[in-house]
Design brief:
The structure holds 2 protein chains of 2 kinds. Chain A is mainly alpha-helical. Helices cover 70% and strands 6% of the residues of chain A. Chain A has 2 domains: 94 residues, STAS domain (Transcription Regulator spoIIAA), CATH 3.30.750.24; 237 residues, no CATH class. The C terminus of chain B is likely disordered. Classes of the chains: A mainly alpha, B alpha/beta. At the A-B interface, helix 2, helix 3 and helix 12 of A face helix 4 and helix 6 of B. The complex binds adenosine-5'-triphosphate and magnesium ion (MG).
Chain lengths: 376, 258
């Protein structure tokens, strides 16, 4: 290969002559900007710039970019340019690049904001986020109201599909996780309780913990990761491809058509999953208890029955209905507010899972306080 | 076979599973020509383009670039050939999470050793060529559909390709922008010396830019006409060809009864 394209400058009378030589190719890079600056130091005193392309080999966009830069600098310096020496193809490309003038005000000027401005912007953003949540909750409540009086605009088949997806399809993962959680609790409890010779109370511990807390909480977290993120991704993608806009212009509220079935599905299915998880967790506990301790299956079962009250179950189930709404709302809200790019959809799915888990745990804490005060 | 054929398609059969779209397509594209693939909606124009650039594999037949078989090339050889192509997709296909300058700069960063500052300069030039000077830092979602098309074109010409493929370049553009895009295609062909393959059913652009063409027909599943569109209009006896090139209007002289 011959040497890459270079340029040199020479003074000819009152003109600055730019000699372009060699093969100019993108593969070989552009001349360093510093060289251009140095060459143009002489240009300020020159009246015009001319080109000599006698030694020029083949060329591509690298030369066009270089000449375009040169022209721009010269224009800023107020030096005239004689383009006659340039190859005709290059002249046409330059003309094309200059054909549409830069739209005034189009270029964005990034400004480095001061700390006060940034704190202010963040506060406003947080406030708007809170308002967004409230507006969404209000909209969702209205949609629920319309559903109750039978005037919501949604498709039954969508609801059925969402019910199936949030219910039956989630059974395998719920089974696995709850079984393991039951086993782990029994295992940890057994080691401690054995020291007092009270191993049979493992049954109480597993049953009450599963029914009151872990069943509802674990299913809510599983569903946040599995279904909440899917909701955000679905609605976010629909937003990208303007499907939400299409619904709006058809006069169908997205709240009814998209959010309502999902919210109903999760808040109906999560309690059922939680009851199922309670049961599977207790079975997991029984496996550890009968395997590790001196407890028979019948003893374990009797002990569990005596430990559990209906209240334990209903608190767990009631909480999980609320968790279901929280997970669905977080998923749908993030999806509907997603930006219109692939990365934004990903970010909204992440935000959906994170906010759902935070909400579920905060809500669980509030429930604990309220139940304590009420003495439940 | 003409020695200056840049692309040769030989006995190409295109199918999706058992659904055969087109059978036994044979044609050649001259080096430096603007070649138009015409046909009704759903006739398989986009699919033909996908075969030419290796996104779909032929059910039968071969595609040659110069004398080299693209169909039988090794993956490495293919990659080398693909680097010489620029493709503008029907929907623009800009990366939504990158700015316009980053979109155009992506192939430059992958295939050249330019520094980030140089890449930005070249990207700015390419955007200026398509009339998007000053929009370097915009995201695709912040510009109009027609501007996205042009930004897609800027990305397609980033590496000074030898062959440019366009899928419906003027679809969704207003007549003036569409005309400007046609001029741009001709200008780029001239100054880059590229061969251009355009899929379109816009009659105005077909007559404005085409040196040569083929017309695909969905019913007979093959090429029903090939040649420069003006000659086809003047000389072809096939009523389907006339119907296509005159938007279904009657041939002058061939009056209906009554
Ligand atoms: N991935 C696919 N799987 C199965 N069939 C497909 C697939 N993509 C396209 N087709 C079928 O192939 C046919 C041709 O599609 P293609 O997109 O090539 O049409 P086209 O000529 O580009 O139409 P248009 O002008 O509307 O873009 C259509 O009938 C379509 O249903
Ligand atoms: Mg198409």
């Amino acid at each position: 290969m011959s040497g890459s394209g270079t340029f040199s400058v020479a003074r000819v009378d009152d003109a600055l002559c730019v000699h372009l030589t060699g093969v100019w190719s993108l593969d070989r890079g552009l001349p360093p900007p510093a060289a251009l600056e140095r060459a143009l130091e002489g240009a300020a005193s020159a009246r015009r710039v001319v080109f000599d392309t006698a030694g020029l080999g083949t060329w591509d966009s690298s030369l066009v970019t270089f000449v375009a830069q040169l022209v721009e600098r010269c224009m800023r310096l107020g030096v005239g340019i004689e383009r006659r020496g340039l190859p005709p193809g290059l002249l046409r490309l330059l003309a094309l690049a200059e054909a549409v003038p830069e739209k005034a005000g189009a270029r964005a000027h990034p400004v480095r904001a001061s700390i006060a401005v940034r704190i202010g912007t963040a506060t406003i953003a947080a406030w708007q986020e809170a308002v967004g949540w409230l507006a969404f909750l209000g909209g969702a409540t209205l949609a629920l109201g319309r559903f109750l009086i039978g005037r919501a605009r949604y498709r039954r088949v969508d609801l059925a599909i969402e019910l199936q997806d949030a219910g039956a399809r989630a059974l395998p993962i719920v089974t696995l996780i709850s079984f393991l959680v039951g086993m782990i609790m029994a295992f940890v409890g057994a080691v401690q309780l054995q020291q007092f010779g009270a191993s049979i109370y493992v049954a109480n511990m597993v049953a009450i913990a599963m029914a009151r807390e872990m069943g509802a909480m674990m299913t809510a977290i599983i569903m946040a990761g599995r279904t909440g993120s899917a909701y955000a991704a679905q609605l976010g993608t629909m937003n990208v491809s303007q499907e939400i806009d299409a619904l709006t212009t058809m006069g169908i509220p997205a709240m009814d058509f998209l959010v309502l079935p999902r919210m109903l599905a999760l808040s109906l299915m999560l309690p059922l999953l939680a009851v199922y998880a309670d049961f599977v967790g207790i079975v997991g506990g029984a496996v550890v208890a009968t395997g590790m301790l001196d407890v028979s299956l019948v003893q374990y079962w009797e002990q569990t029955k005596s430990a559990l009250t209906v209240t334990d179950f209903t608190t767990g189930v009631g909480k999980s209905a609320v968790f279901g709404i929280l997970v669905a709302v977080a998923g749908c809200l993030q999806g509907l507010r997603s930006g219109r790019s692939a990365a934004a959809v990903g970010a909204s799915a992440t935000a959906a899972v994170v906010s759902a888990i935070v909400l579920v745990i905060v809500a669980d804490g509030l429930f604990a306080v309220v139940f304590n005060i009420l003495g439940i | 076979m003409a020695t200056d054929a840049h692309i040769r398609v030989h006995g190409l059969t295109m199918a999706y599973g058992s659904f055969v779209l087109m059978r036994d397509l044979t044609f050649a594209v001259r080096r430096g020509a603007v070649f138009v693939v015409m046909g009704g909606s759903g006739s398989g124009k986009s699919t033909l383009l996908r075969h030419l650039i290796g996104l779909n594999e032929p059910a039968a037949g071969e595609v040659f670039y110069g004398d080299v078989s693209f169909t039988r090339a090794t993956p490495e050889a293919r990659e080398g050939m693909l680097r010489r192509f620029g493709v503008l997709y029907q929907s623009g296909a800009l990366f939504s999470s990158l700015t316009l300058a980053e979109n155009v700069g992506l192939p430059l960063g992958e295939y050249t050793h330019l520094s980030p500052a140089e890449i930005r300069e070249v990207a700015a030039l390419k955007l200026a060529l398509v009339g998007l000077r000053g929009f370097e830092d915009y995201y695709p979602s912040q510009i109009s559909g027609g501007m996205q098309k042009r930004a897609g074109l800027a990305r397609a010409i980033a590496l000074d390709p030898e062959i440019l493929f366009f899928d419906e370049p003027s679809a969704g553009l207003d007549p003036v922008s569409s005309r400007r895009l046609d001029d741009l295609i001709l200008e780029l062909r001239h100054s880059l010396g590229a061969t251009v393959v355009v899929v379109t059913h816009e009659l105005a652009s077909i007559f404005a830019i085409a040196d040569d063409s083929v017309l695909l027909d969905a019913d007979s599943r093959t090429i029903i006409a090939s040649g420069p569109p003006r000659e086809l209009l003047a000389q072809s006896a096939d009523p389907r060809v006339h119907a296509f090139l005159t938007r279904g209007e009657e041939r002058p002289g061939a009056e209906t009864h009554g």
